[in-house]
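User: Can you help me understand a structure? I only have the sequence.
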Amino acid sequence: MIETKGLRKTYGSTVAVHGLDLQVEKGDIFGFIGPNGAGKTSTIKMLATLMPPSGGEARIDGMSVATDAHRVRRVIGYMPDFFGVYEEMRVDEYLEFFAAAYGIARRERPRIVRDILDLVDLSHKKADIIGSLSRGTQQRLGLARVLVHDPKVLLLDEPASGLDPRARVEIRELIRELGKMGKTVLISSHILPELGDLCNKVAIIEHGKMVYTGSVAEVVRQAAVGRVVLVRTRDRLEEAQKLLQGHALVEGVQPEAGTLRATLRDREACISFIPELLVKAGLQVVFLREEELNLEDAFMRLTRGVVS
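Assistant: Let's start by predicting it. Here is the structure, written out as tokens:
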């Protein structure tokens, strides 16, 4: 549904996007993540036909964003991280205005606006003045706006930016519902734990280049540099550290806030040897757990060069 090959964007001598190859399938909820300045917004703006690529190509639903921009705009809904609203308009007037801009027949607009307000749970706000709405409610209205023409593809640039936890949950659940409706969603965000729960695939970019792309499980697996076990004893932590460091299956041990972080040489090794070793030495084990990486851990490792 979204495909780029060698996509490139330069601003003078600065290269913002450097030969990006991206593949988003129909129905994906695709997380697009990277540090500030990585090229995420530039990529999304090119996909949204708001600025031309400097090189390479990008296609949405088989159509070129460079040579077929008008048709591409009919199948996409673009929500920037900061968007302007007409603060003096009513919520329903705002959506009807954009429905008209997309050429939707006048007789169809009230039904479409009503259905979209139901979808984003804003029916009770339809007569409210936009300027009186909270930031979270305005974000939901912004998402409603990009749905008025029933696009196949949604390009969402930091849709939860600046929202409180409750509003972020509401936006996340709405995006999940859109995925169930068959929409293809490309979403950039810095709230990585939430992307890990929401997306079926992710791409990580840094300095305009692809670092990794695949399922969340695959990217976490790629970032793993060894099997790590967290262990804590009631006392004699230094003794426990020396015992573990002397074991053939242990590559290294680091103390962290009263807990030992032991990296094993063999990812398939059974960790039962750890409590056996410590208990045999007269130590009391009060905590033992294998460390599990999440998307945020993987992001930190992959973008800092820990894993190439």
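Now, to help you interpret it: The chain has two domains: 2-222, 225-292. The mean pLDDT is 87. Let me know which part you'd like to focus on.
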